[in-house]
Automatic annotation (TrEMBL):
Entry-linked SMART domains: AAA (SM00382)
Organism phylogeny: Bacteria, Pseudomonadati, Pseudomonadota, Gammaproteobacteria, Chromatiales
InterPro entries, A to Z: AAA+_ATPase, ABC_transporter-like_ATP-bd, ABC_transporter-like_CS, P-loop_NTPase
Entry protein name: ATP-binding cassette domain-containing protein
Origin species: Thiorhodococcus mannitoliphagus
GO molecular function, a single term: ATP hydrolysis activity
Residue span(s) of domain ABC transporter: 16-254
Keyword line: ATP-binding, Nucleotide-binding, Transport
Lineage top rank: taxon: Bacteria
Pfam families recorded: ABC_tran
């Protein structure tokens, strides 16, 4: 085979590259000059105070919104400059879950997981059910396959949402506040699922969260946004940022008590 050089290059290309990105709405800028890479198989957390623009950054990264300036590369290809067909292809490689994680209430868990396969593939029903069960197995939800979403706990809904996001073979999962609204034990179980998916399947994760416990447990690296300077003020291994950052804002975030009230940005 004459292809190792190409695949070696593909392996070293970051899963996601954010290049000098400017994010905002109308004339309001939330973030400027943001640059960072997410390596394959890495769990990267985007953190910062409520309202600083974490979700907006993620929506720009997945091509849902167009950045004011800069670029986002998915596996080396620009999702910002891609035409509609290319963009759809790149987005197929991204599995996305939002805060609500909404499943279709009228479909069983299995049918929900199968839904993207029903919509976007012509795989036979038996095969699709098999894939859906395998995905449910990965998130420890097989026993709930026949249940309706209304019968699931918050943690189960989140895990089912992740399984559905993986249905089309996404290798990069983008999770927006996955542990929002979950009790600490359920949130810790979800963290365990994220780590298992990375370790077992080599998936890449970009997770928006401000849950300190979760950040310290799952993140290989963290990118911290700051609303006042509209910039990334820290990037690194969370425990190192906590213990050694020279920036008081970063130390303050990492050394707050987990049960302290949230700081909300109002402008
Ligand atoms: N579609 C939109 N149009 C205009 N403004 C928006 C839009 N989406 C979000 N915003 C505003 O941008 C700011 C940042 O919102 P965003 O949801 O990105 O922050 P966040 O850091 O994820 O917050 P949280 O942690 O509370 O979820 C907020 O003031 C929000 O009201």
């Amino acid at each position: 085979m004459e292809r190792p050089a190409v695949s070696a290059q593909a392996q070293t290309t970051p899963a996601v590259s954010v290049r000098d990105l400017k994010v905002g709405y109308g004339s309001r800028v939330l973030l400027e000059g943001a640059s960072f890479d997410v390596q394959r198989g890495e769990i990267l957390v985007i953190l910062g105070a409520s309202g600083c623009g974490k979700s907006s950054l993620m929506k720009n990264m997945i091509g849902l919104y167009r950045p004011m300036a800069g670029d986002v590369l998915i596996g080396g290809e620009s999702i910002v400059r891609a035409g509609p067909t290319e963009k759809a292809r790149l987005q197929r490689g991204l599995g996305i879950t939002y805060q609500s994680g909404a499943l279709f209430g009228s479909l069983t868990v299995l049918e929900n997981i199968r839904f993207p396969l029903d919509e976007f593939t012509d795989i036979g029903l038996e095969q699709k059910n098999l894939i859906a069960r395998m995905l449910l197995h990965q998130v420890e939800m097989v026993e709930a396959q026949s249940r309706m979403p209304a019968e699931l706990s918050g943690g189960m809904l989140k895990r089912a949402g992740i399984a559905r996001a993986m249905a089309l073979g996404a290798e990069i999962l983008m999770l927006d506040e996955p542990s929002a609204g979950l009790d600490p034990i359920t949130a810790a179980n979800l963290d365990r699922t994220i780590l298992a998916l990375r370790d077992n399947l080599g998936l890449t994760f970009v997770v928006v969260t401000h849950e300190l416990q979760s950040i310290l447990k799952v993140a290989d690296r963290a990118v911290m946004l700051d609303a006042t300077s509209r910039s990334i003020i820290a990037e690194g291994v969370p425990s190192e940022l906590r213990d050694h950052s020279q920036d008081a804002r970063v130390r303050q975030f990492f050394n707050r008590r987990p049960d302290a009230p949230e700081t909300e940005v109002r402008r």
